[in-house]
Amino acid sequence: MVNTMKKLSIILVAVLGIFAFSSCEDFLDMKPTNQLESSEAIKTAADAEVFMAGVMTRLSSSNLYGLNLFLYGDTKGGDLTIFSQGRGSDALYSFNHQPSSGSYSGFWTTSYNLLLQVNNLIANIQTLESDPNNSEDFGNMKGQAYTIRALVYFNLVRIYGLPYTQYNPSSDLGVPNVLEVLDASAQPGRATVAENYAQILSDLEEGAKSITKTVSTSTNGYPTYWANRAIAASVYQTMGNHAKALEMAEEVINSGKYSLYSNDEWVDSWSKQFGDESIFELYMLVNENALTTGSIGAYYSRIHHYSSKVGGYFAASDYWLERMNEDPDDVRWGVMAYDENSESYDDEEFAGKGDRLGCSYKYFGGVDMPGDGKDDCAACNVKVIRLSEMYLIAAESALATGNASKAAEYLNAIRKRSPNLEPATAETVTVEMILNEKSKEFFQEGLRYFDRLRHGEKIEFNDEIMGIDCPHRDKIIDTKSYHKIVLPISTDELNSNPTLRTQQNPGYPAYVG
Q1: What is the pLDDT of residue 352?
Q2: What would the mean pLDDT of 151-164 be, rounded to a whole number?
């Protein structure tokens, strides 16, 4: 797989040269892709595979799964805190967002550049499949393209559109549904949240028709049918359709393609690539998208650890640590290390405040930073979807549909990682128990904030740990009323596309040209 990815990476340079994609360009300002002779670049299934490799590389960029998607889902959910402002990305934690500053517009631009690639691939495959002289099989690549398009839109609508279950998806605005190659003069407006979700589900079903069900070294790093169904489970749960979420999650669980780690295996699993629980994992290449001091691992490690340039950006909040402290033998302590607010820390400024295991080393492969087999421990693969998420989706969905016994069974499969806690029963299982377990299992994996949004929870932040002043939000925010639970559309986008100027998210300043 490594050699294959390296070969594809080399070829990809030439392909992307042809298409001249630039992450700093607005997607609406770029040359229309139908002028770039993409049909000359995609003629065979092998060409499509190379093109898909480019899509996967962009998906793992720092603006998406390489870093910022995880930070977005973690820093806003209450499980993290900061020890000092100004070290990096603390605007996410403090909700310091405006159209002209702190908008994190990279989510938008990188996603739409990626979607431009995906739409190009889909269009070319459709053309080639309609050619009676074509004998190539494009089915898997087409299925992958639709699946990735659904995933990208799912992330976009959750970042820019109000929560489906708490607001009014039929009238709330989401993001533009761009599904084809655009003309250079195109200025699409925002679709509704409901329209976005309908397209996401349509893409997932279209992708499921042809994407491979094979799980092997040949599919490592790419979505399969099972990743498609896992994404669908999360989408349906986000929409409050618990019956469909349970159906999708159970299809993955019962497939026999994946298995949960035992307690003895869980910690070491972070130093392994494409393990038994990994449903969708992105390959990170050293010196290409490892990001070194800008990696996920670096942002969640202790200050000046791994590198003197690591700033000690984020650590566990007291609230998360209280949850974990219910069981000192929880196996998930095995990837946690002390933070700068600990007696163990060797800087006098932070000493004497108690041992505090607030830093996660999942994305360095473990507390000893072994990595996952590459030369740089910061190049650990990104685990986008793990089997344990399907168990917890199934648990919550089963409970919501009235099957408390099944909910307890699915929850206990993960809860056993805290061996001293009493197993849940049909009489004791609650949504709170399931969400708390998910918080512990997926600490710093980008899920917490979205769970709290779909439940309309109030979120409390641990600002007082170092006396952090956050004037841009209160210590407790109400996700049912606070306008900054979604990002603003950046001023650059509004300047580029007049259609969006009257479609800014509520509560943010109106466009001024």
Answers
A1: 55
A2: 98
Element (H, E) at 169: none
- Tokens encoding 96: 């310091």
Q: Is 459 helix (H, G, I), strand (E, B) or coil?
A: strand
- Are 394 and 252 in contact by the 8 Å Cβ rule? The answer is no
Q: How far apart are CA 106 and CA 265, in angstroms?
A: 36
Distance CA 87, CA 418 (A): 34
Q: Which residues, in sequence order, are CB contacts of 139 under 8 Å at separation 6+?
A: 210, 211
Cβ-Cβ contacts under 8 Å for 236 (sequence gap 6 or more): 242, 244, 245, 248
pTM of the model: 0.92
Grouping H, G, I as helix, E, B as strand and the rest as coil, residue 385 is: strand
CA distance 429 to 188: 46
Handedness of CA 497, 500, 505, 506 (dihedral sign): positive
Q: How far is CA 129 from the centre of its chain?
A: 32
What type of residue is 237? Q
Closest alpha carbon to 444 in 251, 248, 261, 295: 295
For residue 215, report the phi and psi dihedrals to the nearest 5 degrees. Answer: -120, 105
CB 28 within 8 A of CB 186: yes
Q: Are 20 and 107 in contact (CB under 8 A)?
A: no
Tokens 């740089």 correspond to 376
Q: Give residue for tokens 């199934």.
A: 394
CA 395 from centroid of its chain's CA atoms: 21
Q: Retrieve residue 89's tokens.
A: 């990305």
The span from the CA of 226 to the CA of 247, in Å, is 13
- Averaged pLDDT for residues 49-77: 96
**In the chain, % of residues over pLDDT 70:** 90
> How many angstroms separate the CA atoms of 238 and 159, rounded?
13
Contact of 316 with 358, CB cutoff 8 Å: yes
Mean pLDDT, range 162-176, rounded to an integer: 98
Distance CA 72, CA 95 (A): 10
| Contact assessment for residue 289 and residue 380, using Cβ atoms and an 8 Å cutoff | no
How far apart CA 249 and CA 265 sit, in angstroms, is 23
| Cα–Cα distance for residue pair 170/164, rounded to 1 Å | 9
34 within 8 A of 111, measured Cβ to Cβ: no
DSSP characters over 106-139: HHHHHHHHHHHHHHHHHHHHHHHHT-TT-----H
Q: Do residues 78 and 461 make contact, with C-beta atoms less than 8 angstroms apart?
A: yes
